[in-house]
Design a protein that fits this description.
binds iron/sulfur cluster; iron-sulfur cluster binding; alpha+beta; 5 helices
């Protein structure tokens, strides 16, 4: 087991995730934007399942089942990202371009980043990974106060990046 994991820092390691049923395999990432669920604790929760109009997320019964995704059905729409109370879902697109990948993750801080901003991207321990360029922010009513920020970043950091550093208030 790697030095950090769910038990030591409360965040799963890549190794733990790759052993979980919901985590995409390489070939799943090759088909375009897909949802990635980093939820590996058995808790009574299923908004991810009910938010997916494509029926791609399965929790089933009992409700403590870990969510699974049918990547054939997932279109990367992002509805499940805003619906997850644990902020445990993001969308990743390995096929964005030759050199860059795209990630769309939940963001619940003010101020929001703006399109075109260069932001610091972070990994599962909150560690700095690389910088990326904001290419979109979704903050519609359907998102229920959880904005979804989309950022493009170098593909060589594809697996490591899961979110961005919070932008500090200017005061
Ligand atoms: S991204 Fe859209 S289609 Fe894919 S699992 Fe989430 S809600 Fe369903
Ligand atoms: S909604 Fe989020 S926290 Fe709840 S089961 Fe789904 S992925 Fe896990």
């Amino acid at each position: 087991m790697s030095e950090f994991c769910l038990k030591t820092i409360g965040a799963p390691s890549l190794e733990e995730l790759r052993n979980s049923a919901a985590f995409p395999r390489r070939e799943d990432f090759m088909k375009g934007p897909i949802a990635v669920i980093e939820c590996i604790e058995e808790i009574p929760c299923n908004p991810c399942e009910t938010s997916c109009e494509k029926g791609a997320i399965i929790v089933g019964s009992p409700i403590t089942n870990l969510p699974r995704i049918d990547f054939e059905k997932c279109i990367g729409c992002g509805f499940c990202v805003a619906a997850c109370p644990g902020l445990a879902i993001y969308i990743k697109d390995y096929t964005y371009s030759e050199q860059e990948a795209r990630i769309s993750f939940p963001y619940e801080y003010f101020p929001f980043p703006q399109k075109g901003d260069i932001v610091q991207l972070v990994g599962r321990k909150g560690e700095k990974v690389c910088s990326g360029t904001v290419v979109g922010i979704q903050n519609g009513k359907k998102n229920d106060r959880t904005a979804i920020v989309s950022v493009i970043y170098p593909k060589i950091f594809f697996d490591e990046v899961i979110s961005m550093e919070r932008i500090k208030n200017k005061s």
